[in-house]
Write a structure and sequence with these properties.
Blueprint lengths: L1 E2 L2 H23 L4 E7 L3 H17 L2 E7 L5 H13 L5 E4 L9 H7 L11 H8 L8 H12 L8 E5 L6 H9 L8 E5 L6 H5 L4 E4 L17 E4 L3 E4 L7 E4 L4 H4 L5 E2 L7 H19 L3
Length: 293
Amino acid sequence: MQLIDGKKVAEEIRNELKLKVDETREKTGKIPGLVAIIVGEDPASKVYVGMKEKACREAGFNSRVHYLPQETKEEELLALVEEYNKDENFHGILVQLPLPKHIDESKIVYAISPAKDVDGFHPFSVGKMVIGQDTFFPCTPFGIVELLKRYNIETKGKHVVVVGRSNIVGKPVANMLLQKKNNANAVVTVCHSAAPDLKKFTLQADILIAAIGKANLITADMIKEGAVVIDVGVNRVEDANAKKGYKIVGDVDFAEVSRKASYITPVPGGVGPMTIAMLLSNTYSAFKKNENI
């Protein structure tokens, strides 16, 4: 079994981007800019946005975090998004989800200019992804594909089974891997909670991607010998021996499944770090397009 080290690959990507940013700054005097907008006091969102801000600084990006109170009105948030749509100093706009219940998330996502949609959630970006055109890909699926690429894991003709059908991971990664392209061209099956016998499908997987949000759902008897296992899950489970009283585990029973897998991602340290790295990659691409570099 070989461990797929997402933390290491993410660091490599950030270092590669820093070199590109430094070179571009010397030639043009310009750098990529990313703004993150966060509404409310969700602790997890604050931690995540803080990590994104740190990664931006390290890569030489212009970074800004715009904090708004919980009671911010939908119209106020829409107006702020439009302000950043027009701001030439920022090439990517990220509105941290979830938003407070009184704000329609779809309206906010639709309001972001497709040219600055570095999260890859706008219907324009999603549509281009589905028909196989170049676009901004959602960051977590983009990170999964990049990990497979950098570990030289063959996808052409392989049976990829995706467990989970979310708009953020399951659906986009399935679409990306079935495209007739390099590092894709797979035979893809998407499974979800309606499957009467999930094991029937997971046992067929050459590459299994677990993104359903249920701790340790995938057990060793559910995968075939030598399968590649990508664990996207991030689940908090009680652990009396841990300082915080809990630990973070994936959707895969790592201890058991790792004995059968040829490659596997750990949780944490697998797919998670790639999400921010690919956000920076998308932002750099937006920068190049918007600045005609």
